[in-house]
Amino acid sequence: MASVTIDNLDIVLGGNTILKGMNLDIAHGEFLVLLGPSGCGKSTLLHTIAGFNEVAEGSIRIGDRDVTWADPKDREIGMVFQSYALYPTMNVEKNMSFGPRVAGIPKDEIERRVNKAAEMLHLTPLLKRRPAQLSGGQRQRVAIGRAVVRDAKVYLFDEPLSNLDAKLRAELRRELKQLHRTLDATMIYVTHDQVEAMTLADRIAVMKAGVIQQIGAPDEIYSRPVNLFVAGFLGSPTMNVLRGKLNTSGGLRFESKAFSTDVSAYPFQKAAVAGDVVLGVRPEQVRLAHAVSPETPHAGTISVVEPLGPQKIIWFTVGENTLSAIVDDQWQGEPDDTVYFGFDLPRASMFDAGSEDRL
Fold first, then answer.
1. How far apart, in whole angstroms, are the C-alpha atoms of residue 118 and residue 270?
2. Which of 72, 55, 40 is nearest to 6 (CA)?
3. Which end of the chain offers a freer environment for a tag, N or C, measured as fewer CB atoms within 10 Å?
4. Cα separation of 102 and 150, whole Å?
């Protein structure tokens, strides 16, 4: 079993504590994505699992082995970097087989592994080409194939798609997901791209300043963020954020300078307490209409319309706030038009303004 267990891990680099008391359990066969902004410690954690960083305190286990102080070559991992790091004088076949050849794996076994990986990654016709003769997407496939032929227990990916254009990223995301299903291997993937995280992960661990803020399935992270940071990091366009007060006298109302709305339908985690709050509503949770109604009681002014093929993003202003809503492509509206809106409150999020934790 190739589970990964991180227990009370401290990482200190250059006298700075990057990770403190990190605990994380990754199940065998799981695809875990470490998501967060630059400098949050996600790559440091990945490199520490790989054995590139020394551990100040704590331990790392892969399966039933404590690998805290094991050399990278002895951890049974396959690593894919952001840069392809291919040997320019070697063809695809030799690049992919380099690790097993150095490890003394029998030649027929290496050939079997290379052919299997090449078939999975659509590289069979390219085995005799050198990296200079390949596109960026093909080079990254070779880098992934080089990791696969190691027949590792755990595969580590450090932002492998960030150098590719949008079309290639989408293609390789799909292939990585299929590769995970085929190999039934444990994969840990670092990215700052929320689309990659949402589409690839079994679970996402959202990190900030070396601390995991929330870990869970993509739908859970997206739908029920535990704090304002997680809420704002996922979603495109980002979550609409409205600051105001929760009034509990004679009902439950959210009140801001721009408008007031009944929030009794919101699923509070505990008894609602009056005070400063932040109401978070994702664009798809905003209802738009051309006329006032019980479901769209508030008025705003359209500022920008962004067509996206099957959908449109409507940006509109309400007082000093600019909000966004996602509508279908048939919805009609132009800048400066008055628009009426309401919220799907059972699906919305509300946070304490001070702690920024979910209410």
1. 54
2. 55
3. N
4. 11
pLDDT at 1 over 80: no
**Cβ(50)–Cβ(130) below 8 Å:** no
Torsions phi, psi for 39 (to 5 deg) = 85, 5
User: For 4-227, which CATH superfamily applies?
Assistant: P-loop containing nucleotide triphosphate hydrolases (3.40.50.300)
C-alpha distances (whole Å) from 125 to each of 114, 118, 148 are 13, 9, 18
Residues 6+ apart with CB under 8 A from 176: 144, 157, 189, 200
- Residue range 9-22, pLDDT digits in tens: 999 998 899 999 99
Give tens-digit pLDDT for 130-156: 999 998 888 988 988 888 888 889 999
Spatial CB neighbours of 44, under 8 Å, sequence gap ≥ 6:
11, 13, 18, 19, 53, 210
Name the nearest CA neighbour of 91 among 137, 44, 123.
Answer: 123
Q: Classify the C-alpha dihedral 86-91-92-93 as positive or negative.
A: negative
CATH 3.40.50.300 range(s) for the chain read 4-227
Instruction: Output the pLDDT for position 289.
Output: 95
